[in-house]
Amino acid sequence: MSDPPLPRTGTRRTEALARGEHVRRRARVWMAPGIGVKRWLALFIVCTAVGAVGFLHFTWTGPLHFIATRWILWLNALISPEVLPLYVVGVAVTALALIGALWSIFMLNRTMLVGAGSGPGLAVDMILEQRNLSRGPRIVAVGGGTGLSNLLSGLRGYSSNITAVVAVSDDGGSSGRLRESLQMIAPGDLTDCYAALSDSPVMARLLLHRFQRGDGIEGHTFGNLMLATLSEEQGGLGEAMKDIHEVLRIRGRVYPASTHPTTLVATLDDGREIRGESRFAAQVGAARITRVRLDPPELPALPDVLEAIHEAGQIVLGPGSLFTSIIPALLVPQIARAIRQSPAPLVYVASLMTEPGETDNLTLEEHVMAITAHLGRTPDRVLVNTASPPDEVMQRYAEAGAHLLDLHGASHDLRGRVTQLPLLQPGQARHDPEALAQALMGLPSRPT
């Protein structure tokens, strides 16, 4: 039999140094400014010291005087005053008692964290992240579709003070079927936004799961069915908002523009009207959409939405379809009024391309003019992408009749409002969430 290998002293020493550095790093994080630990640690030490003095007063002046006397005599016998003065012995005993108390609290917290499926290292990182996110800017994002959920997935890394206001007039696909059968608002874009802001990766994945089979549920997503269940159980999604945010562990808040079902109606420049946004692309034809409205028009907004707009440091429109995602949310009268009255900068994230059947041949300036006409306020900043998609991607969009939105033919006023940055995901014609979030963080916002 061969001899066992000798211990690798150098490796053990390296591992010990690494563990020591990890412990020191964790201690520095716990003591970092703003994490909310130092103040309570200081209070604990002060209270412990005051308690010790109070206990000494009680024992020395009360019926336990003989115990204090025997304690002092025992210490004198154990450690001669010639070796250490009595007050030094007292300070040492007090320090050891305080260290023991702190260590017991640390081990108790460690046991509780491990029992909850976490640990001290993970816990301090989570606390620090939550503290930083809670100090992030207050942002209200308005719109719908994949563009809004894409934006939210980037913003969640910079702030937990995010409120998404989602258009709910979609009448196609899974949302349309649920609207028709249950007389509820369209849940599809809400589901996408909940998944983008959920702190539970498993729940975010489940929300977007689309059933490929099953009588009656084929084509529906799990998230849409969950929202339909809550709407049916509580008589509308307005009453279920708090439960949804808690169950899904949402970083921020997601609200529908209104909790009342509504139909989007488009007026074309040839005088026709089209009811239902799912019919726009097929029926607009060579005409142009001049205006859209909601039927019924006088829809109430949730108080939480109006409060979020009032407190916002920045209000973001888009990215998303102009007439079917952004403007429908602005047609709720109370929301439009709150945005007009808000001192927060209004930022429009311009679409990357025109959309066939909806914004054919519309320029960037005409997109901004349409928002102004429906909202009654012109965006203060317009965020425009400067990166070019790959040629093969551009060719596919061109064959579908779409073209890039840029500053070609833009007025001097619009150019003064534009911020241009590369915002594309590599190899795609889609906004990059991280680049978009960084761009918005770099724009001015109202102090809150």
TrEMBL record:
- Which CDD domains does this chain map to? YvcK_like
User: Which Pfam families does this one have?
Assistant: CofD (PF01933)
Q: Where in the cell is it found?
A: Cytoplasm
In terms of Gene3D superfamilies, this protein maps to:
CofD-like domains
Q: Which residues form a coiled coil?
A: none
Q: Which UniProt keywords apply?
A: Cytoplasm, Membrane, Transmembrane, Transmembrane helix
Q: What main location does UniProt list?
A: cytoplasm
Keyword Transmembrane listed? yes
The regions listed as transmembrane in this protein's record are 40-60, 84-106
Cross-referenced NCBIfam families, in alphabetical order? CofD_related (TIGR01826)
Identify the HAMAP family for this entry. Gluconeogen_factor
According to its UniProt entry, the function of this protein is described as: Required for morphogenesis under gluconeogenic growth conditions.
**Family designation:** Belongs to the gluconeogenesis factor family.
Q: What is this protein called?
A: Putative gluconeogenesis factor
